[in-house]
User: What shape does this take?
Amino acid sequence: MLALSRGIGRTLATMLAAALAMTLLPASADEGARDPSIALFYGSPVPVGQLSSFDAVVVEPDSGFSPSTHAASSAQSRWLAYVSVGEVTPARAYYKDMPPAWLKGSNAAWASRIVDQTAPGWPQFFVDRVIAPLWARGYRGFFLDTLDSYQAIARNDEERAQQEAGVVAVIRAIKARYPDARLIFNRGFELMPRVHDLAYAVAFESLYRGWDQANRRYVAVPEADRQWLLAQARTLRERYALPVLSIDYCPPSDRECARDAIDKIRQQGLIPYVTDGALQTVGSGIPSRPDASASRTILVVQDVQPGANLNVTPGVRFVSMPLNWLGYRVEFADVAKPLPEGDLSKRYAGVVVWLDYPAPDPSAFRDWLEAQVDHRTPVAMLTTFGIDMSGELARKLDLEPVAGRPGKRLRVESMDASMMGFEMQPQPDPHDTANVRAGARSRSLLRLASADAGNDFAIDAAAITPWGGYAMRPFAVFDMPMANQARWVLQPIRFFRAALRLPDDMPAPDPTTENGRRLLMTHIDGDGLASRAEFDVNGGPMKVSTNAPPQYSGDALYNVIRKFGLPTTVSVIEGEISDDGPYSKDAPRLRAIARELFALPNVEMASHTYTHPLQWMRVTGLGKSSGDDTAEGGGRANYNGLSIDIPGYRYDTDREIGGSIRYIDTLAPPAKRVKVLLWSGDCQVPASVIEAADKAGVYNMNGGDTLITKRYPSWTAIAPLGVNKDGYFQVFAPNQNEEPYTDLWHGPYYGYRRVLETFDMTETPIRFKPVDVYYHMFSGTKYASVKTLSEVYRTLSAQPLMPVYASEYAQKVLDFQRMEVTRDGDFWRIRGNGSLRTVRLPDDRVPDLASAEGVIGFKAGPGGVYVSLSGGEARFRIVDAAQAAKMPYLAEANGVVDRFTRTAQGFVFELTSHVAPHFAIGGEARAGACVVRANGRALLPAIAQGRRVYSPPASKRNESDAVHVDVVCAS
Assistant: This one.
């Protein structure tokens, strides 16, 4: 509930006097740059990724959203809770505990009661019952609404003064309890002389466009009302130096209305935010072309089988990966549950519908689908339409129902070879057809006709249509259950781009790369630390004497990790190394090995849980996992679904996550703590378990099962970045561990060398993934597996990669989720939290460095041109490579670049790398035009692929030290 420009307590004479005294507020670019961007969203669920592009976001706390559980994915935004000071509705939890004497009037438009601000105990009650619970949920600011509602019950000046004093007491009580709370006042102009020093910003509504709640319609604002508001705004800006937010209202589909209101509000020197009357859609707050607010989010609607985990659904297995590569995050909806309502065209860039079965409520789904088409939200439908495609709906979708049957055989009559036959040719099945033809306004991608003589049956099994596009079963993904594989029949990237009308020039956030180099990481699941090494870890393949002290897998891996020096995330299972577990006799030595591993300077600490749950849906009681009777590694599951048997223990989420982290932290050397939770077993974790990891303050990773190899050469075997589960994000491992390469550890034990095939096939022709050397502790038990690990590391050490820890990669994936990419005239604006610093452009397109902000360089690579950013924000326009300004830039580097600054003749930056640092300069006007110094010492380049590559000396240098680089080039 907002005040909605009630205009209480001002006379026409006051408004006219203010209007006569009024001149336009200054529209200073410098002032605008200092003001925060502010959004308001009162719907549910809260679209964190879209809203995180704003500095401050006001949400309705009864939506269930809690900032504390989204800290990693929204680090740059301040989340404020909506609270009503002057009114209360019976729906609020605290309403029933308010004495009836406190409620002095009513507001019929919002079905609320007006609170007597002079009531004894009201300020204390408000802080204790309204503010304190929200603070505990992570809110660090509050949007104080209905500050002027008291005017409806105050009968004279004396009562008004008393009521105002009561409101001031409430505000001061909030700041007394929570001095760091940021407060946005909605109006309350009369209070400003006494509370302006407590305000983060002041808001008002309806400067140009308003919402009439009583009649539920959008309205134009009278000029007199506008001039009165502008007079108030001038006082707030000039006398109190406060940011002022103007909240205007336009229909979500009327982008021209929003654009006009934003531009006019900006011209007055105010912060604009334009949204719908119910604040249920993500509004706009930047001046731009009408398409600038287009979302980076795509909704995937699918039929989820009861009890199934989201990980195993087609939307995750097949749809998400190509959409992620195109730069889009994915949200999911179950067709059996209520689907998002209203105009989704601004909330989502498009909708993908994958229905293997008929919609459970055909009428409701039909209405919902028609609404999306009416709102011009692009829709791509795969496998089936889910409903009977006939009548008015078919005509609206430019589809023609086809009568009859195909007969015994179907043949391909025509096919768009750029879209269809990608990994295998279409295999028409006359027993499974969608009997429709594409109309005159559509483009057929695959036309099938009867192969029987005299039968004129013909259908379009796939097409691009005015509303989007479709590909019916089995012409999207062809399932091969006997081989446990699948193949794309259509080319998914081209299909989704065409069907969803996705712009081909949008810079795509890309977490595979940083500073022009593909990322490299290593992470180890803790399974098998208690396993004995079957060879002398210090001498070769000969077995240890039975009288010698035992050697464990961790002893062998310690040598490998120390030798190659690459960033490595090492986890242990608490139950495997604790005295309460099944290896109590070995536990002291196992803990000693863990301490030795964690003490290595290139090791990051991680937990692999307490007892290594095998089937997460089963142990949490939330459903049935796929392969419910099969444990990781091919063994049979323990009766309780846990891998480590702790006598008397029953599964407990906090014990598995927070408890294991606290225990493993006791093994940490100084200044180290657990940073990552590596999922165990089938990795099909429900949202509540991801929430537990978030609350424990660690990043999470594992799952996804990227298994592409020469034996399984399909994009269907490449997993997406992860999966959003009710607002909690599971980060998938970039590729799978050694088990599938060693036949679930039955041999050959050298099989993990085939992971190099996976690395190659996720690099060319398109870079889908970073490199991840991912294995279990039991890889240290066999001479062949340890030797293979060394071979893999040696191969990768010769490649131009950028080593990172698993936690650093996880942060980039989470930043991908929150990053916003918007148009600003001819420019693109990028905004994230600074963890993800790469966006990808199409081939032969580069950023114009002469006018760019926040761009340090670029490099062509597999799938496009990788643009390197200096931090979380950038602004640039895209030009053809041949038209780009000829100026020096940082082409690549193998570490984090900070403090990048362009100078009159070059640039300076600081480089921090986990290994010996390297970087390359590009864009020089002529060879030898640049002089490069590192920490004041001149460097000579090596020429590699036309670039000047520099290697600052690594001696006498700690890993945490940054190399200061100064590049000066002749003009």
